[in-house]
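Handout, page 2. Input:
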Amino acid sequence: MANYTLANLVKAQIKMQGEFAANDQRFRIPEVFKLFLIGAEQFFPSYKQLKTSDTRAVEANYFERTAQTLLTSGRSHNHTGAGGDSGVLALNWQTYSTTFSMTLKQADTSVYSWQEEFDNEIRNKIIDFADGLDSVASTYLFSNRSGASDGAVASKVTFNATNDVYVVGGAYKDEIGTLIKVVADINKYQGQVVDVVCDSLLYTNMLKLANQGAGNATNTSFQFAGTRFIHDPSLGAKASALDATYVEGFAIAVPRGHVACADWIPRQNRQGLDTKEQMYGALLNPVDGLQYAVHSYSERADGTSVNGQKQDELTQTELSIDLSLNHAPSSVTDETPIMAFAIVTP
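Output:
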C-alpha cells in the first residue's frame, strides 16, 4: 500500500535495519550512462552559462576533415587549392523528471519520522534516474552505431552495412578483445582506451578469457589491455531483435571520450529560490554526480485519503534534469565512433 500506511502505529512496529532492509531498493550502477559523463565540460566549454533557458539552443563548432589526394606531378608555380570548412553540432536536449507527494502530517501516526519518509522518497527517485538513464544511454549507443567502416579483419570480421554491425565468426569468439582493438585501429582510433559494452553472453565470455592468464594452457588475458568491459543486460534483447543470428554475443565499442552528455538545470534551481508560492532548489545525485533541479509547491488539503489528517498540507515535489547525449561528429556519411560487434554461430 502507498503513503506508508503499513507503518502506522496501530500495532507494535519496529524498523528493519541494514542490508536486510535495503534489499528491495537495490539497483544497478549506471555504468553505461557514466560513459557519457567523461569530460562534457571540456568538450563543450561554457555551455551552462550560454544556455540561459529551457528553450535557448546551443551549438558547438568543430573543424571538419577536408581530404585531398596527394599529387605526384611535381612542384608548380601556379598551384591552386580549396579551403577547409567547419561543422556544427547542435546540442539537442531532453528533460527527464520524476515526482512524488507528501502531506505535512502523514508521519504523525507512523513508526517513521517525516524526515525518514522524505529521505526514502528521494532515495527512490535517485534509483529511478539510475535505472532510467542507463537505459537511455544504452539505447543511444545502439541507435547511433556507425554505418560506415574503413575495413574489417580478413575472414575473421566482416562489416554488415545493413545492420551496421561488425560480424565475428563464432570460431574466433575467443579473440574478440583483440578483434575489437584491431577494428578500432583500422578506423583510426589507434592507441586509445576502448570501452566495450557487452550483453550477458559476451560479458560472461570476457570474464572467462580475462582470467586465462599466463599460467594457463592458453593465455587469452593479453588482449584486454587498453579495453574496459561493461555489462549491459538489456543489450541481448536489442541484438536478437536486430538479427536472430547474433546468438553468441553482442557488444558496442566506443573509444573513450568520444561520447558525451551535457547536463543543465535552470538558473533559479542552481541559485535556490523561494517565492512563497514555489521553491526552486538543486540536489547533488550521489550516483552520477550531477546536479538535479528540485521544484516543489504546497496547498491546503484533506490528507485522509493519503494517510494524512483532515486539516493538512500537501506538497508536490519534482526532480528533473535536462540532458543532451552526443557522439563525436564526423563529416563521413553515416559514420560515428560507436562500433557494434556480433558473434555468430561457427
